[in-house]
Amino acid sequence: MKIERKYMAHYLNAAFSSEKPSYVRLGADLEEYSPELSANVEKKSNILGQTSVTIDSYQKQGEVSPYYAEKGDPLFEKLQEIIDGDLVLDDLKTDIVEVKLWDAEASGAFPAVREECYIEVSSYGGDTTGYQIPFNVHYTGVKTKGTFNPNTKAFTTGE
Fold first, then answer.
1. Over the range 60-97, which residues count as b (16 or more CB within 10 Å of their CB) and which as e?
2. Residues 6 or more apart whose Cβ sits within 8 Å of residue 128
3. Which residues, including other chains, have CB under 8 Å from residue 31's CB and lie 6 or more apart?
4. Is the pTM of this model over 0.85?
5. pLDDT tens for residues 59-86?
């Protein structure tokens, strides 16, 4: 059985704080969100005609475009703060949780992986359809497995 795309959910921590996270689900205006893995691949051929392949790391990144600003949305407020303050370095650090909504647990939570990331606002403005702030999510590879409850928007670290 194929899994519909809506069951792979991405929740971005709009508070940019691990103490009081505020998770917002990405996707309201997105037709696609596919984090690109960008593997570091090394291939070597020897004189016997054999090729060895080594994949030693990934530089994962996702593009959120379009993103329409909505008054009162905590993610919009943080993105606007990044623009207004020319924020850099750790001021851009937050986390994103990927939730597998096809695999419910008895508690109402779902298997999830939280990953540290940095947000890069790529532009702002847009056309007559509305104020847009497209951005990129740069994943660091620092991951924590656990569960996520979409009703409470709470991530719980696994055992």
1. bbbbbbebebeeebebbebbbebeeeebeeeebbbbbb
2. none
3. none
4. yes
5. 999 999 999 999 999 999 999 999 999 9
> DSSP string spanning 27-66?
-TT-S----B--EEEEEEE-TTS-EEEEEEEE--EEEE-S
Q: Cα separations (Å) of 62 from 72, 106, 118, 158?
A: 24, 31, 11, 25
Q: Which residues contact 148 (CB under 8 A, 6 or more apart)?
A: 11, 23, 97, 99, 109, 110, 112, 114, 154, 155, 156
Whether pLDDT at 159 is above 90: no
The count of residues in the chain is 159
93 with 117: CB under 8 angstroms?
Answer: yes
